[in-house]
Amino acid sequence: MSILVVGSVAFDTLTTPSGQRKKILGGAATHFSLAASFFTQVRVVGVVGNDFTAEHEAVMTRKGVDTSGIEHANGLSFHWTGSYEGTMSEAKTLGTDLNVFGSFDPKIPESYKESDYLFLANIDPVLQLRVREALPGVKMVAGDTMNYWIADHRENLLKVLREEDILIISDGEARLLTGEHNLVTAARKVMELGPKSLVIKHGEYGATAYFSERSFAGSGRLTPFRAPALPIETVVDPTGAGDSFAGGFYGYIASQPELTPQVFRTALFYGGVMGSFAVERFGTERLQEATREEIDARFQVFRELSHLDLESAA
Ligand code: AMP
Questions:
Q1: How far is the CA of 41 from the centre of ligand 1 (A)?
Q2: For 138-162, how does the pLDDT look when each residue is reduced to its tens digit (9 = 90+)?
Q3: How many Cα atoms occupy the beta-carbon half-sphere of 251 within 13 Å?
Q4: How many domains does the chain have?
Q5: Which of 17, 191, 204, 242 is most buried by a 10 A CB count?
Q6: What domain range is 188 assigned to?
Q7: What is d(CA 223, CA 196) in angstroms, rounded to the nearest whole number?
């Protein structure tokens, strides 16, 4: 099974309490692809400039990611500058140089048209919708977004939400989208806008899945499910944690024969595992080196983290 992801492929300049990195490989689609590549075939649609070298592309192709849908345009690649302070729960954006990303018009190679799963990473909802409409046959659509689109491009975003099976956003974004502080109420209202299921990320505290009657055929509305995040002592760089979470989550789903409640819950754990690797080093460094064995070992740690064995406690 294969996932087509559309989103930013970028260079990031990052400052965190651990140090600084200039123009290192980043972008939502990049982080997502690397994380998902451990589970399934991934195909990327994006745009880069002349500064994006064969070595940058190889970071993805070495993991089996199909990059033939990354357009090479004349100019510079998207460049994001951000910094983190204190709790590091939120990035401060210092610069967004769109460069060739500013006139991005996603082109889907013929060889991508048979993709089964679509992930709409954080880009202009107009482009998200265009890609979705170009792939009418996909089995499942999941997506992300951010405050900027929620606040200033709401009408366009609402059109995309109607197309999504699973929306993956942060708790702050869910509140902004609905005007509701209570997350259970916010989740219900988000799903009324279209998504069948909703994953709300709580940064370093994990993620919660909310379900509607439409999440799984015949099962009614299930109770929410919360997966933990790993308490980590050395958080070097949170950039890409959300996209790596989404990659692990959706990659696992795509690797399974069908989406059941159990697959959904397990996927949340794999999302947490990939997010926890992402933050341990700058940019994509840690995910480039991760192995399937490490992923499985950490998955077991995640299970133990929240496992209550009443039998042995008695
Ligand atoms: P995350 O930390 O998972 O929310 O994602 C961070 C990644 O998103 C970075 O690697 C950036 O290159 C990318 N990014 C930041 N701002 C934007 C934006 N406005 N549009 C698309 N991608 C962005």
A1: 22
A2: 999 999 999 999 999 999 999 999 9
A3: 29
A4: 1
A5: 242
A6: 2-306
A7: 14
